[in-house]
Amino acid sequence: xxxxxxxxxxxxxxxxxxxxxxxxxxxxxxxxxxxxxxxxxxxxxxxxxxxxxxxxxxxxxxxxxxxxxxxxxxxxxxxxxxxxxxxxxxxxxxxxxxxxxxxxxxxxxxxxxxxxxxxxxxxxxxxxxxxxxxxxxxxxxxxxxxxxxxxxxxxxxxxxxxxxxxxxxxxxxxxxxxxxxxxxxxxxxxxxxxxxxxxxxxxxxxxxxxxxxxxxxxxxxxxxxxxxxxxxxx
Length: 234
Known about the structure:
Layout: E1 2-7, H1 11-24, E2 28-34, H2 37-47, E3 51-55, E4 57-58, E5 61-62, H3 63-69, E6 76-81, H4 85-94, E7 98-100, H5 105-117, H6 121-131, E8 137-141, E9 146-150, E10 154-160, E11 163-168, E12 173-176, H7 180-187, E13 192-196, E14 199-202, E15 206-210, E16 216-219, E17 224-226
Parallel strand pairs: 1-2, 1-3, 3-6, 6-7
Antiparallel strand pairs: 4-5, 8-9, 10-11, 10-14, 11-12, 13-14, 15-16, 16-17
Helix pairs in contact: 2-3, 4-6
């Protein structure tokens, strides 16, 4: 049985989440509630829960303010948020679980299952804080652990069936347990280009574009990639 607290400044939101947890997550016991940063920090110190359901925006501050108060926090955090695209982008780069209000029961169950197994919450929360205004780092899940990568150090990504191989400026590489399509959505707005169905490249590492032979891109590390039309990449 996992213990949990709910921190949200809206009483009806706390009640709704508590009811959903009671109905769909029989392995979770709610041992405390709070309506803000100050009271939330107090209940976390008193209860030391396994999981914290934490609202982002509250009347006396944000969920991040609460985390600053508790730098040695050992609990796993599941954020709850309204539709905030900047926040959601930060969560995805940091591999942090979040629940979008109104909360879907299936998403709740998945988030709880993941939080129950997660051993890298501190590292992920650190990335989230850095990425909240502008993404700088990316959490990469491998079969063994989570790697924290500086986005500017990623040279290119290559599809490997349901996995993705990341290549870095120091010539190291990491096989990550997500598809290239998922990283395409995250990294294209950060200066990356998908010139080919199987490749995603950092434009900072492009050496030249050759128009011959149908067109291909040459990378600074010597890699060459045919340039497909956008319609071929869907």
